[in-house]
């Protein structure tokens, strides 16, 4: 097991269809102790029904749009569990109207919200974790992105801009974290039917296109993305940092 004895935080768990849940299952199978965070205190009881399926796991409330909330959450995690070896940032949000309307109609407030929650929250998470000295040596951080950061995808709109910012953040954070012998990478996952994906217009047609065009002619699963996440958490990826790795059955390499 490649994560035996390690402790990892999974941020952004929402339900059993979440990509974050696939990551948690994979990390647990590889020997890690799992610590979850979810968006609000009101959601913890419902989330706990799910996370109880993973033995010895725990759940904490964390509002990723608030530095104070992240700090309070991480302080409690460190008090309860000590230092951790990895953090998965699986957090993103945009207003529905900014996904459904043409990109040119994105409001200033909507743009700021999408970038704050989906991109800046990674910077805040990493900075606060480092400042609290809760990361072990050789710690690895992973965040999730999507091909819509590279190409204009119908219905992705403002989230594409936010994910492009997230990917730039990963590169600059890798430069800073390398000074402390820590790593950070992103996974660009193929489209998956999640709660968030429901906000994308005609999402099912995207799944059909990927299945038709991808070299492996299938859509990726949360477990497959989770396995790639476990690899990036592990020492097997010790020379990889600042990268965006596509886990999409090869769809992103196809030109037409």
- The CATH superfamily appears as NAD(P)-binding Rossmann-like Domain
Query: Ends: how far apart?
Result: 39 Å
Ranges where pLDDT stays below 50 over 5 or more residues in a row are none
Count of helical regions:
8
Write down the overall mean pLDDT. Answer: 93
* Share in helix: 40-55%
Strand content: 15-25%
Neighbour order of strands in the largest sheet: 3-2-1-4-5-6-7
Question: Into how many domains do the coordinates divide?
Answer: 1
Secondary structure: elements and pairs:
Elements: E1 7-11, H1 19-29, E2 33-38, H2 44-51, E3 58-61, H3 67-81, E4 84-89, H4 96-100, H5 108-131, E5 135-145, H6 158-177, E6 183-189, H7 203-213, H8 222-233, E7 244-247
Helix pairs in contact: 1-8, 3-5, 5-6
Attribute tags:
seven-stranded parallel beta sheet; 7 strands; single chain; alpha/beta; 256 residues; 17% strand
Q: What does this protein look like?
A:
The protein has a single domain (7-242), classed as Rossmann fold (3-Layer(aba) Sandwich), CATH 3.40.50. 41% of the residues lie in helices and 17% in strands. The chain has eight helices and seven strands, in the order E-H-E-H-E-H-E-H-H-E-H-E-H-H-E. The protein has a seven-stranded parallel sheet, sandwiched between helices. Helix 5 packs parallel to helix 6 (158-177). The protein is globular and about 50 Å long.
């Amino acid at each position: 097991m490649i994560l035996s004895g390690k402790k990892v935080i999974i941020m952004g768990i929402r339900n059993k269809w979440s990509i974050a849940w696939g990551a948690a299952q994979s990390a647990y199978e590889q020997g890690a102790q799992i610590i979850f965070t979810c968006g609000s205190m009101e959601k913890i009881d419902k989330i706990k029904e799910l996370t109880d399926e993973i033995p010895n796991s725990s759940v904490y409330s964390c509002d990723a749009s608030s530095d104070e909330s992240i700090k309070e959450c991480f302080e409690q995690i460190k008090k309860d569990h000590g230092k951790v070896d990895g953090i998965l940032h699986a957090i993103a949000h945009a207003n529905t109207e900014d996904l459904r309307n043409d990109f040119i109609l994105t409001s200033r407030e909507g743009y700021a919200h999408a970038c704050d929650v989906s991109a800046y929250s990674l910077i805040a998470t990493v900075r606060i974790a480092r400042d609290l000295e809760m990361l072990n040596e050789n710690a690895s951080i992973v965040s999730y992105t999507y091909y819509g950061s590279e190409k204009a995808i119908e219905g992705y709109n403002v989230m594409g801009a936010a994910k492009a910012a997230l990917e730039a953040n990963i590169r600059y954070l890798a430069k800073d974290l390398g000074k402390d012998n820590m790593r950070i990478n992103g996974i660009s996952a193929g489209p998956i039917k999640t709660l968030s994906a429901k906000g994308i217009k005609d999402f099912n047609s995207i799944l059909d296109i990927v299945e038709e065009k991808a070299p492996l002619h299938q859509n990726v699963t949360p477990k497959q993305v989770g396995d790639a996440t476990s690899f990036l958490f592990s020492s097997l990826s010790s020379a990889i940092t600042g990268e965006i790795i596509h886990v999409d059955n090869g769809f992103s390499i196809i030109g037409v």
